[in-house]
Design brief:
alpha+beta; D-Maltodextrin-Binding Protein, domain 2; 2 domains; three-stranded antiparallel sheet; about 40% helix
Length: about 450
């Protein structure tokens, strides 16, 4: 930027679905609003403000400084201000800004925040605003995640998808050379590994319930589990089998007792200690493993998620949207396209080290096509391969907190054998339908 206005960065987690910890330092900020472009000349001028979400310190300070400099060189009359906002404060800060006059021009959101703000009329409809080049630049699943009510409100930025991580030393000891692609296969494989190691082997990540919901959608192979706001879980044989076999594995000690808590962090700790051998997570999963358990890290291998190779897989998306009250619409749209173009996305992916870009061209780079045979490289390769079938499996809903809480509680009760799998699905269906009736939402997934 040309004015003296430094970025303020705050350490934090980008979003639970992404599980991306980008740690850095705080910087001071001092900036004031300039008048926006009123020249009518067609040349971008004035000030344009971009908010990022929980990106802190180096190497991100340098990345955004260079990004800012390049965009300003392309548009000499424009002043770019980049500020960072904690992810968990972003939605409310955007909504609060819309009630006043000091509105950011471009904001970094996840699909849930995006749809909530768009539903309240807070975001600019980009359908007719973006260039033809941008309209065809992005991977389809992530691009669709920026839509609400058939209108485009956000451009996708960076992504993570789930891969399967396994301890190859344990698998070799058990004589297992391939990962399973069915629930029955998970049981048979995990049983062999447990018998060989004498320890639990499989850890189903529950988190806040959303991960289990995504698994349910994925293993249903295209059969909706919610249709027009009405859940239909009873009689779904794929989901019933998943509930039956996870309960069985827990009872037989194949799944550890700690799985009832279900966080990816607990699974990570067990994996680092060599006390489990198989779980699913993003590429970011390996970070603490590499530094805290190098022997386990070196034994780690990655593969596709543990389901049918044609089944959809979830993608977690961070995107950029333009608030409806922006005072510099043309500059805001241009900046959103610039930050998310193929060149800049590729560079950001390299800087971050554990995320994927959402542009088709970026993914053709050797960085993703030939990442090497390190555990991290294999993870990036498998993650990028899965993008062709990746989508946001659970659409943002007003009742999402209720759905997640019910799923976590009932899946955990089933895991521990407190209810039968049939009873669990019946109860879960009832709880989901209560939530949909309360909000009147007619979603399908």
């Amino acid at each position: 930027m040309k004015k003296k206005a430094a970025k303020k960065f705050v350490v934090g987690s980008v979003v639970a679905a992404l599980s991306l910890s980008l740690i850095g330092c705080n910087k001071d900020q001092a900036s004031g609003k300039k008048e926006d472009d009123t020249s009518g000349s067609g040349e971008l001028s004035g000030e344009v403000t971009l908010w990022t979400a929980s990106l802190a310190g180096e190497p991100f300070d340098t990345y955004f400084k260079e990004l800012e400099k390049e965009f300003e060189e392309q548009h000499p009359k424009l002043d770019v201000i980049i500020q960072d906002v904690p992810q968990n404060e972003m939605e409310q800060k955007v909504l609060t800004s819309l009630t006043g006059s000091d509105v950011p021009d471009v904001v970094n959101l996840n699909p849930h925040y995006m749809s909530n703000i768009a539903a309240q009329g807070g975001l600019l409809d980009l359908t007719e605003e973006i260039s033809d080049e941008a309209n065809s630049a992005y991977v389809e699943g992530p691009f669709q995640s920026g839509k609400y009510d058939d209108k485009l409100y956000a451009l996708p930025w960076y992504l993570t998808t789930t891969v399967a991580w396994y301890n190859n030393d344990h698998f070799t000891k058990a004589g297992v050379s391939e990962l399973p692609t069915t629930t029955q296969g998970i049981y048979e494989t995990a049983k062999k590994v447990t018998e060989a190691t004498g320890k639990p082997s499989y850890y189903p990540v529950i988190n806040d319930g959303n991960t289990i919901m995504e698994k349910m959608v994925s293993i249903s192979n295209g059969e909706p589990i919610v249709k027009d706001g009405k859940a239909k879980l009873e009689g779904n044989q794929s989901i019933l089998e998943f509930f039956e076999l996870t309960q069985k594995m827990y009872k037989e000690g194949i799944i550890p007792q700690e799985a009832a808590e279900g966080s990816i962090k607990t699974g990570q700790e067990l994996y680092m200690a060599g006390n489990i051998s198989l779980l699913e997570g993003g590429v970011t999963f390996l970070g603490p493993v590499e530094s805290g358990a190098p022997e386990v890290f070196n034994a780690s291998k990655a593969d596709q998620p543990l389901n049918d190779t044609n089944a959809p897989v979830n993608v977690a998306v961070m995107n950029f949207a333009v608030p409806a009250k922006t005072k510099n619409k043309e500059a805001a749209v241009a900046l959103a396209e610039f930050v998310t173009n193929a060149e800049n996305q590729l560079e950001f992916a390299k800087v971050a080290g554990t995320i994927l870009p959402s542009t088709k061209e970026s993914l053709k780079d050797d960085y993703f096509v030939n990442p090497g045979d390190s555990p991290k490289g294999l993870g990036m390769l498998e993650a990028s391969k899965s993008l062709s079938r990746a989508e946001v499996l659970i659409p943002p809903t007003e009742n999402s907190a209720d759905l997640r809480a019910a799923t976590k509680n009932i899946f955990t009760k089933n895991l521990q054998g407190k209810v039968s799998p049939e009873e669990a699905l019946k109860e879960l269906e009832e709880e989901w339908n209560k939530a949909f009736e309360k909000t009147g939402e007619k979603v399908s997934f």
